[in-house]
Amino acid sequence: MKEKNWKEIPLGGLILEAGNAEEYETGSWRTYRPIRNEEKCTHCLLCWVYCPDSSIIVEEAKIKEFDYGHCKGCGICSAQCPVNAIEMVEETKFNSKKEGGE
Ligand code: SF4
Ligand code: SF4
């Protein structure tokens, strides 16, 4: 493979193509996992509005599930929920990153 000179290497942190976040499984960064209590949830959708990673899946105006492949575990959904229906649980409590998710 031909070595690149410094002028051919992209600048650090440069995003060459916009709109590619979905391709990266950022869920592996998570240390806390949001768990929704179905009985408490009123489907007000506030968590969906505030989630910075669009990781809350809604179908027919109701929360369906979390997209654990992309949820980074920031906890904003839990902090915004008016009825405390989302608990942030340590990832170490689960057997795998995918358990309870996708
Ligand atoms: S903010 Fe809370 S009550 Fe509203 S949809 Fe989300 S989990 Fe349910
Ligand atoms: S923890 Fe953060 S990224 Fe994950 S669903 Fe809640 S608001 Fe979205």
What topology does this entry show?
Elements: E1 32-36, H1 46-50, E2 56-59, E3 62-66, H2 76-80, E4 86-90
Antiparallel strand pairs: 1-4, 2-3
- N→C terminal distance: 39 Å
Biggest sheet, strands in spatial order?
1-4
Number of helices: 2
Which bin fits the share of residues in helices? under 10%
CATH architecture of the domain at 38-92: 2-Layer Sandwich
Name of the CATH class of the domain at 38-92? Alpha Beta
Give the averaged pLDDT, no decimals: 89
Please compute the radius of gyration using only Cα atoms: 18 Å
Number of strands: 4
Series of secondary-structure elements, N-terminal to C-terminal: EHEEHE
Bound molecules: iron/sulfur cluster
Which structural class best describes the helix and strand composition? mainly beta
Q: What is the CATH topology of the domain at 38-92?
A: Alpha-Beta Plaits
Uncertain spans: none
Specify the overall morphology: elongated
As a percent range, the share of strand residues is 15-25%
Largest sheet, if any? 2 strands, antiparallel
What report would you give on this structure?
This protein has a domain of 55 residues: Alpha-Beta Plaits (2-Layer Sandwich), CATH 3.30.70.20. A hairpin with a 2-residue loop joins strand 2 and strand 3. It is built from two helices and four strands. By secondary structure, it is mainly beta. The strands form two sheets. It has a two-stranded antiparallel sheet with strand order 1-4. Strands 2-3 form a two-stranded antiparallel sheet. The model has no long low-confidence stretch (mean pLDDT 89). The relative contact order is 0.25. 10% of the residues lie in helices and 19% in strands. The protein binds iron/sulfur cluster (SF4) (2 copies). The site of one iron/sulfur cluster has 13 residues, from helix 2. The site of one iron/sulfur cluster has 13 residues, from helix 1.
